[in-house]
Amino acid sequence: MDKIVGVKGMNDLLPPQSAIWESVEQQVADVFRAYGYAAIRTPIVEPTALFIRGIGEVTDIVEKEMYSFTDALNGEQLTLRPENTAAVVRACIEHNLLYDGPRRLWYLGPMFRHERPQKGRYRQFHQFGVEALGYGQPAVDAEQLLMIWRLWETLGLSVADRPQLQLNSLGDLSERLAHRQALVDYFSAAKDRLDADSQRRLQTNPLRILDSKNPDMAELISGAPKLSSFLGQASRAHQDAVCQALTVAGVPFQMNDRLVRGLDYYNLTVFEWVTDRLGAQGTVCGGGRYDSLVEQMGGKPAPACGFAIGVERLIALLEEVAPVAPAPGVDVYLAHFGENSEPAALHAAEALRSQGLRVAMHSGAASIKSQMKKADGSGAWLAAIQGDDERQAGTMVIKALRGPDPSKAVQQTVSLAQAGMVAKQMIQEQRTHSGA
Ligand code: ATP
Ligand code: MG
Predict the structure, then answer these.
(1) Count of alpha carbons within 13 angstroms of residue 97, beta-carbon side
(2) Is 32 exposed, middle or buried (0-12, 13-18, 19+ CB in 10 A)?
(3) Which helix (H) or strand (E) holds 204?
(4) From atom 7 of ligand 1, which residue's Cα is the shortest distance away?
């Protein structure tokens, strides 16, 4: 039979890498919770109209990256979510979550974009994200940036290894419109130097031309009118407050007036955290303020601010700067031999688990030598061994696998009832020795 392979650009996550993901997920969730964010889970599939309205018609995502389809059973137009802000906003409006005040929400999950697969760019990828809805103050923008800074620290990134924060302000609508007109005038005068994409965007979304990565247009773009010179007093005060909070907290950042972000809903603060350790796909996190999105999606007006972190890129960065050794999946590998040894081994493994240990039991008949090899390869701290004698006596032998000198490995014979306590002590001794 032909074998069926997975969809291009959509990855399987396998052991032992999956253990790194679990550990990162745990640490990220802990940091979000430490700032009062509550988890929200929304479906992977939403009405296509949600993303067209939420993200904007003239964006890379809506123009060419969405997995959209018609539900063959009822004709609904559906899309695999390419990002989650629009969906979180939809859920908040639908369930009236903002009726008694603002909300801090976080999520984790797969997103789908039909892009050209390459390192750091996949068709199914994952994001951690947060949305603070109903908050208009610059302190919330700043708090999110401090939270991300703390996250880098929690994940063990030294200051030099952390992604760098780039910041910009997109001002308010009237400021953006004035800037837009200046851009149209500027780029219209140099129309022959624009590539096809940018010529089209000149009519539909000239701001996005600034986002172009075409090196032939770099010089033209760098001379374009800057949004920062169109900002009014209120927008400048908002930006100053964010910058000041960062400075006070000692979080380094750079202003980047070319940073416009690929989605339409942003205003005032926008930011990206960028690393130079991952080649072309260096943006690990992006976000900003979207004060009009809730109203635009049919809710009562509510200012908001959020960001998303690309999990694949984050983990690639962690592995690049400090290879993460996955923690052992189990504490004990249970080897057993003799006539019909499995039922008693099953029972012994259960006894160890009841005493709080993670146990992998050897399955099938094999020589003790090959079982001990398996025990070593499993990454477990200990091997527990049950042969005929131990089985009859209701005991097992526990052997340290990761002692300072394996040839002098410690081993003890213990009763099932004592096994958990002794095993934990032996693990602790090995941890102390290995510095883990
Ligand atoms: P890029 O400019 O790299 O295409 P983006 O602006 O489209 O990024 P956002 O929509 O801001 O990305 O998503 C937030 C984060 O999600 C990105 O900074 C990145 O880390 C991650 N991300 C986005 N698209 C992909 C993808 N196709 N594969 C893997 N990660 C992605
Ligand atoms: Mg993109």
Answers:
(1) 20
(2) buried
(3) helix 196-204
(4) 262
pTM for the full predicted model: 0.91
**CA-closest residue to ligand 1 atom 16:** 310
Q: Calculate how far, in angstroms, residue 62's C-alpha sits from the geometric centre of ligand 1.
A: 14
Which pLDDT value is given to residue 320?
A: 93
Ligand 1 atom showing the smallest separation from residue 281 Cα: 3
Which of ligand 1's atoms lies nearest the C-alpha of 283? Answer: 18
Q: Where do the domains of the chain lie, and which CATH numbers do they carry? A: 17-171+231-321 (3.30.930.10), 332-434 (3.40.50.800)
* Segment 171-206, tens digit of pLDDT: 999 999 999 999 999 999 998 999 998 998 898 888
Contacts of 165 (CB under 8 A, 6+ apart): 145, 148, 149, 246, 251, 252, 253, 254, 271, 272, 273
Q: Using CA positions, which residue lies closest to atom 29 of ligand 1?
A: 121
Provide the token pair at 29.
Answer: 């969730």
Give residue 173 CA to ligand 1 midpoint distance, Å: 25
For residue 405, what pLDDT is reported? Answer: 67
